[in-house]
Amino acid sequence: MYMKTTRFKIGLLIILLFYSLLYIATSKDYPCEGVCKKMSDVSTSLRNNRLYVLGAYQCRDSVLCVMVRDSIPQNWDALADTACMFLRSQSLINYRTVVVNQRQDTLAKKTCP
């Protein structure tokens, strides 16, 4: 009887250790570095003091998408120019900027110099 109880406890301990290691292995956060960090900085700069900008993200290779609330009338071409300026400040060259609304309608496009 004592032997069965000990084996049962050891079995439970092994299962618990396995699931603990699995949790630790799959829950690691990876830091945002390189282009990821630069895109994050561009997004932060675009959102700064612009309540209509929801965020910016790299939607395709060398393409920055800027998501906005289009309920507020703005000069979307000027926003695309500003995004290009922030991309240049982060040394991200040869990008295209696309301003889209929440329905993914294109409001402006700009090829950054």
Explain what this protein looks like in three dimensions.
The protein folds into two domains: 1-30; 35-111. β3 and β4 (106-111) form a beta hairpin. The protein has a four-stranded mixed β-sheet. It has 113 residues and is α+β, with helices and mostly antiparallel strands. The mean pLDDT is 89. The radius of gyration is 24 Å and the shape is elongated. α2 (35-47) packs across α3. It has helices at residues 2-26, 35-47, 76-89; strands at residues 53-60, 63-68, 96-101, 106-111. The chain contains three helices and four strands; from the N terminus they run ααββαββ. Helices cover 46% and strands 23% of the residues.
Secondary-structure map:
Layout: H1 2-26, H2 35-47, E1 53-60, E2 63-68, H3 76-89, E3 96-101, E4 106-111
Parallel strand pairs: 2-3
Antiparallel strand pairs: 1-2, 3-4
Which residues sit in consecutive blocks of at least 5 with pLDDT less than 50? none
Helix content: 40-55%
Calculate the mean pLDDT score and round it.
Answer: 89
What overall geometry do the principal axes of the alpha carbons give?
elongated
Cα separation of the termini: 79 Å
Binned strand content: 15-25%
Our count of domains comes out at: 2
Helix count? 3
The secondary-structure class comes to alpha+beta
Strand order of the largest sheet: 1-2-3-4
Largest sheet: 4 strands, mixed
Count the beta strands. Answer: 4
User: Over all CA atoms, what is the radius of gyration?
Assistant: 24 Å
Q: SSE order in H/E notation?
A: HHEEHEE
Summarize this structure as a short list of keywords or feature phrases.
23% strand; single chain; 2 domains
